[in-house]
Amino acid sequence: MKEIEPSTNEREFVLAALKDGARIDGRNSYDFRTLRLSFGSDYGAVEVQLGNTRVLAKVSCEVIRPFTDKPTEGFLVFNTEMSPMASSTFEVGRQTDEEVLVSRLIEKAMKRSRALDTEGLCIVAGEKVWSIRVDIHFLDHDGNLVDAACIAAITALMHFRRPDVTVVGEDVTIHTLEQRNPVPLSIHHIPICVTFAFFHHGEHMIVDPTYLEEQIKQGDMTITLNVHKEVCALSKAGGLPMKMDQILQSTKIAVVKVTEITAQIQAALEADAKKRQTSRK
Amino acid sequence: MDTTTATTPMNLENSPAFTFTASTFQKLHPIEYFRKFVSQGVRPDGRLLNGFRPTTVHVGVITTANGSAMVRLGGTTVVCGIKAEVAEPKLDSPDQGYLVPNVDLSPMCSSAFRPGPPGEQAQVVSDAINRVLKESKVLDLKDLCIEEGKAVWTLWVDIVCVSYDGNIYDAALASVMAALANVRIRNPSYAGGIIKVAGGEAISDENSFRLKLNRTPLSSSFALFDTSLTLLADPNFAEESISQGQISITIDEHDELCAVSKIGAGSSSQALLRQCVDRARERSKELRAIMSAQ
Amino acid sequence: MSRPDRSRTSAHQLRPFFSSQNLLNRADGSAQFDFGGSSVMCSVVGPAEVRIRDEKLDRATIEVVARPLVGIPSIKEKAREQNIRETLEPLILSGLHPRTGIQIVVQTMKDDGCILSTAFNATIMALMDAGIPLKSILGSVTCMVDEKTNQIWLDPTTEELAQAKSAHVFVFDNKSSITSASAGAQGKDADVDMDQDTVGAAILFSDSTGLFTEEQYFECAQICFKAAQAIHGFIRTAIAKKLEKEYQQTHA
């Protein structure tokens, strides 16, 4: 179904409010919406709610043969196909430009930043490696899919446990979850995306835009950072021309956001681990 | 909608200008036309309601394939060809081969199908056949192992519909079972990581093997017509397109059920399903006789 | 009388099931239905604009999209889409909304067996949440026959399904179960030799695979029918509660 453009009234109301430094959902310009993380009963499944945006990430693994030119490298595969569940503008089997852009951004942020140690996924060089698959399901689209998806993906990867393996010579035994405690993946760092949207020719800048704000924005930029203040990716695909200073300023804002979000992810993971331990007893 | 407009010419039957020929009536009001036949206990093609269309089975129709069969079910013709290829097994099932059925419904067999990637019906029938073969353990995939962890056989089971006139599932499953029974694969030899499959001399019992089939499931499908859920055995294309739903019963030679599916239409009583099972039992015996006569 | 799922004591026991409605804000209706460790989210959009190619002049076009938890949609999902669509088409009063489209998206959220049944139950709740007019509601339950003991286990987990000789998915609607039960009570049904229980279980959808006998099949149908009554009751209560809440909100 076609996307319905916001009405002139809506558009002007949002823009006028932004001029006064206000957003229609009551947030300040640099506020994220409430972030909720909920874990399933099995490892590697996490549902992220960022305001009304809802994303489910599910991590799974299988043993496969590595490429001959990279015999010790495991695989990290992303699936970010969008379903019409998130928004009926997404059609099955036909990717819109927006979809491609979002998918590429997520892959860039998660894969190229080398957050996951793929060499650590090797079982027997040249023979067997783990392939880790992250399926990201967009359930509800209320803007800023990228940030929500990245939070979901990295949290799910951190939550995931793969079956333990023992290698004796050529023989590889994969232990079931009942036989041996599964092992976590080795994560180098936690890249977090922070998306900015620009209005009034760059005069006003906000973080975590909603769907309505995304429809009205003039330009956007996504910065991927980790808690060590390292920039992993920066993506600004066209749109509005920006001043250097503004990029530096937004990076500083992003650092604060990343620290907050990382802390929340870690707290949620710890709470879940505790819950699991008590339920096992 | 159909009934109201169809009654208009009936009321004016004195006026010849409003009389339809049978074929016009069929085109304008296919459901009403069909209802008139069903009320007399027959179908437009002369069959009784529980009658299946004449069926023929020919095996070994494709000489280049390892196994093949052609099944005609009235106007529906399917050809099944099975090709065996050596492949590497999956790491988590090192001693199991592959059995991959694929149904092709191309525009060649009916204008109802479009060119391009397989449509929904083709995929659904492929899935149904795949499930029967696997869940009913027709073939032990371990029999397809050449060397554990190194090489296994992949059986590509391609089912091509040549002419489509309804009930593709029954025809396709029968062709697959006939073709599987027809499969002959040359004995492979494994030495030092190399698989050799000797060619050349004529295929014989010494240099080849056949598949061990645990059972031969065959299906019988019925269309459900109208709200009364009248059963129409072996529906043709016209009957399929006006039916409300379908019941398929798959049964093997030991009188065990391999699959039952009922989809569409309203709720049907268990008595109706029992009726289908009974009819399917008779039908599969007949079909088995036709297949073994080959 | 023990089964691999140690949380249950009886072979004919369902896992705890629950649902929540109206979770998504972009869809017209949505629901999530859980059977123990299995969970399916369903969203419904419609009646809305439909592609001209799919437009039907006398009724709404119903489209079902099924999505797996892991991997890209395969022929398994195609079959699931067809099963859900063809079962719901006669249930939805699509004639009330000609030349429109109703899109149903079914997303697996957690998979521990019986996904098709979970999806059916989620779909009917999402349709009601979206206010799509329906002739009746449905309830779906899966059961299996154990390879070793020939016991019938209701609502099996993935672990249990691995040792199934046959698996059976059934859907029953609440309308015909009432009418045929009363018809049976009055002895009006043509098959008077059937006992009342058997007549009651009119089957809306059935999908069985594996190896089984006719008796096993109908026994499974009977057991699932009884269990489906609990699902019907649950759906009814859930909807009643939701409406009550909505009424209070609008009339406060």
TrEMBL record, chain A:
It is found in: Cytoplasm; Nucleus, Nucleolus. The lineage of its organism: Eukaryota, Fungi, Fungi incertae sedis, Mucoromycota, Mortierellomycotina. Pfam families: RNase_PH, RNase_PH_C. Keywords: Cytoplasm, Exosome, Nucleus, RNA-binding, rRNA processing. GO terms for biological process: exonucleolytic trimming to generate mature 3'-end of 5.8S rRNA from tricistronic rRNA transcript (SSU-rRNA, 5.8S rRNA, LSU-rRNA); nuclear mRNA surveillance; nuclear polyadenylation-dependent rRNA catabolic process; rRNA catabolic process; TRAMP-dependent tRNA surveillance pathway; U1 snRNA 3'-end processing; U4 snRNA 3'-end processing; U5 snRNA 3'-end processing. This is Exosome complex component RRP45. GO terms for molecular function: mRNA 3'-UTR AU-rich region binding. InterPro entries: ExoRNase_PH_dom1, ExoRNase_PH_dom2, ExoRNase_PH_dom2_sf, Exosome_comp_Rrp42_subfam, PNPase/RNase_PH_dom_sf, Ribosomal_Su5_D2-typ_SF, Rrp45. Its main location: cytoplasm. CDD domains: RNase_PH_RRP45 (cd11368). Belongs to the RNase PH family. Residues 31-163, 189-254 form the Exoribonuclease phosphorolytic domain. One of its GO terms (cellular component) is nuclear exosome (RNase complex). The keyword Cytoplasm applies. The keyword Glycosyltransferase does not apply.
UniProtKB/TrEMBL annotation, chain B:
Pfam families: RNase_PH, RNase_PH_C. GO terms for molecular function: mRNA 3'-UTR AU-rich region binding. One of its GO terms (cellular component) is nucleolus. Keywords: Cytoplasm, Exosome, Nucleus, RNA-binding, rRNA processing. Gene3D superfamilies: GHMP Kinase, N-terminal domain. Belongs to the RNase PH family. One of its GO terms (biological process) is TRAMP-dependent tRNA surveillance pathway. It is found in: Cytoplasm; Nucleus, Nucleolus. The lineage of its organism: Eukaryota, Fungi, Fungi incertae sedis, Mucoromycota, Mortierellomycotina. Residues 52-185, 217-282 form the Exoribonuclease phosphorolytic domain. It comes from Mortierella polycephala. This is Ribosomal RNA-processing protein 43. It comes from the Eukaryota.
UniProtKB/TrEMBL annotation, chain C:
InterPro entries: ExoRNase_PH_dom1, ExoRNase_PH_dom2_sf, PNPase/RNase_PH_dom_sf, Ribosomal_Su5_D2-typ_SF, RNase_PH. SUPFAM superfamilies: Ribonuclease PH domain 2-like, Ribosomal protein S5 domain 2-like. Keywords: Exosome, Nucleus, rRNA processing. The gene is EXOSC5. Residues 13-133 form the Exoribonuclease phosphorolytic domain. GO terms for cellular component: cytoplasmic exosome (RNase complex); nuclear exosome (RNase complex); nucleolus. Gene3D superfamilies: GHMP Kinase, N-terminal domain. This is Exosome component 5. The keyword Nucleus applies. One of its GO terms (molecular function) is RNA binding. Belongs to the RNase PH family. The keyword Nucleus applies.
